[in-house]
Amino acid sequence: MNKPFDPVSASAAHRIQREESAGYDRRVIDYIHHAAASGLYEIRGLGAKRHLPSFDDLVFLAGSASRYPLEGYRERCTTKTVLGTRFAKKPVELDIPITFAGMSFGSLSARVKQALGRAATALGTSTTTGDGGMTQEERESSKTLVYQCLPSRYGFNPDDVRRADAIELVIGQGAKPGGGGMLLGQKVNPRVAKMRTLPEGIDQRSACRHPDWTGPDDLVIKLNELREITDWQIPIYVKIGATRVYHDVKLAVHAGADVVVVDGMQGGTAATQTVFIENVGIPTLAALRQAVEALEEMDMRGKVQLVISGGIRTGADVAKALAMGADAVSVGQGALIAMGCNHDSWFGDGVAHSAESDYAVLGTAPGFCHHCHTGRCPVGITTQDALLEQRLEPAVAAKRLKNYFKTMNMELTTIARACGKSNVHNLEREDLVALTIEAAAMANLPLAGTNWIPGA
Amino acid sequence: MESVMLDRSPATTRTFDLEGGSTRELNQFLHTDLAASGVRRVEVLNPKGAHSIAVGVNHPVEIDVQGHGGYYLGGMNKHASITVHGNVGWGVAENMMSGMVRVKGFASESAGATGHGGLLVIEGNASLRCGISMKGIDIVVGGGVGNYSAFMAQAGRLVVCGDAGDALGDSLYEAVLYVRGRIKSLGADAREEPMGAADIAGVGDLLRRAGLAYDPAEFKRVASARQLYHWNADANQEY
Question: Which of A202, A222, A230 sits opposite B230 (nearest CB)?
Fold first, then answer.
């Protein structure tokens, strides 16, 4: 005989449990499954995906009764930016304070490097080599090219030093401060291998420390050597991954840097261990504030220029960075996205071709892809594959980059004018307030609507 | 290329005394005025451990440094033949492309680091990390080398006539190392291999050019076992 229907216990028996654990959420479960299956940490591209205090947590106080704004369409607002005024006889002069970040030939195709150079030249800004040497394509297409000197010294040579417009000595990178570069075997094709003096197809793991200097006292001597080789003509930048920024900036200035580049933890990468990307370094917002404080304490604001990078995506981000004290910003991941990274299509012969099935082969989809490390970029950007790289047309990519940077620059001047500045470099901390206590504390700015600066 | 006869007459020799002058003047001359000057030999007096002596030279010239040099002597050299009549600090001939650097005394750390070409001869001992990340340079050390020498060395040859310290050739790529004396320990992925006829001939040639009269057959060959070229073979590239 059937039991009488009991709505209370029936509901309990048939309920499907959907309460997700905070500690063991789907992300952590997937991580453990992957680790158990492979016995190897995950390596991926892109930067930190976790939520971090950022420039989004700041807003501007524009002109009002006590400050008057400039006319958005009539009154001039200059964006000219000069980097390297301390020692270099030929500082880098840029039309806009937005530059292209260092990204290697190897992680990117030669066609992408060429597109970056073309766009930079058209925009009157600079582009930067990476951990793989300087390609002919990028030198020829770039009016202003910054040449990186990295721990690996892959492809580093005096001829390219002599034809560089600035040298950037790289101590660290925001995505992995304390870690060396990585390029998995799929991307070490014959040309990449030859430029790096490596066997083809190996999983390349670069050194994380420079081979010929250790510590700040040696750095003084190393920078002097680079200056001697370049006859004190061009600026020497020092790039650090954001960790102990306050001290590192002081040491870089002490060592004789013309320009300090600080890369926060939102900075991108083409291949790094996820555990590194998400757990090492500090957010760009916090790094910028510490860098500016270090320069101010040394009375070096305006004498040593500060470039900030790591998650600069919009004109608002640029404006906030400048207001906090940066002289310029560098954009890497945003530039790749402008060229089509994570787009559902690639463009060839004026026609859009769906890339969705290629994303699916990688186990991902447009909007979620971080598979730069595989070399199988569905839109032909982070690849060394002869067929895939054809999916990026340098002229089209350069145009998209130019549009993106011009948009950011217009947004920057829009905000600057609203704040009453005829020069974007006149944006100041007083123009900013924070929306969250965390951002207020990190940026040393008042919480909006109060005079409270946590920790001040 | 090192056997080219050089005109040593006073008319073609230029002397820089670093006692009253500066490394800057020396390097500026080497970079700009040297090529059209007719100078074939440069003599550097009283270096007294100064850093960055004769860096970035891009011209065939004979340079004699009469004393001790500091860091990066002959750094990024191309074409020049530099002789140091003394000891040198860190990074002698770092990233050298071609030409020759000879140190009559001892060399400190990272001698010949990341060098792409040319010949570096250290007649005495070399300290830690000699030949680190070398990319094609040939290095001959008359004495011994310190720990971690040829770390991540990518290409080129390192010949050590004395002993080698700990972790020789750690994470080697395609560079080949030859050691006549005792090797305290080999680094990860480095292994001893038999000397072949080509090794004997190559070491013999390098010793001859370095002016060292050892028998090439006395040397041991160390090269990469190539077990670290890929992340983890057991994981079947599942990353």
Answer: A202
Helices A284-297 and A315-324 sit at what angle, rounded to 10 degrees? 30
The H or E element that residue B197 is part of is helix B197-210
Instruction: Give which of A368, A388, A365 is closest to A376, Cα–Cα.
Output: A388
* Chosen from A229, A230, A231, A373 to mutate, greatest number of chain B CBs within 10 A: A229
Structure confidence by residue, pLDDT tens digits, A399-423: 999 999 999 999 999 999 999 999 9
Q: Is the pLDDT of residue A7 over 70?
A: no
Structural domain spans, chain A: 55-427
Q: Which of A38, A211, A230 sits opposite B113 (nearest CB)?
A: A211
Is residue A268 within 8 Å of A45, Cβ to Cβ? yes
Q: Which residues of chain B does A229 touch, with a Cβ-Cβ cutoff of 8 Å?
A: 27, 55-56, 75-76
Contact call for residues B174 and B150 (beta carbons, < 8 A): no
How far apart are the C-alpha atoms of A313 and A333, rounded to whole Å?
8
Restricting to B residues 175-194, those with a Cβ less than 8 Å away from any Cβ of A are none
> Predicted ipTM?
0.94
Asked if B157 and B173 count as a contact pair (C-beta separation under 8 A), the reply is no
Q: Identify residue A187 by its one-letter amino acid code.
A: K
Residue A119: DSSP 8-state = H
Alpha helices in A143-189 (DSSP H): 158-162
Does CATH number 3.30.56.10 belong to domain A55-427? no
Question: Using an 8 Å Cβ cutoff, are A402 and A396 in contact?
Answer: no
pLDDT digits (tens, 9 = 90+) for B32-46: 999 999 999 999 999
- CB-side exposure of B220: number of CA atoms within 13 Å? 16
Let me know the angle formed at the C-alpha of A134 by A130 and A137, rounded to the nearest 5 degrees: 115
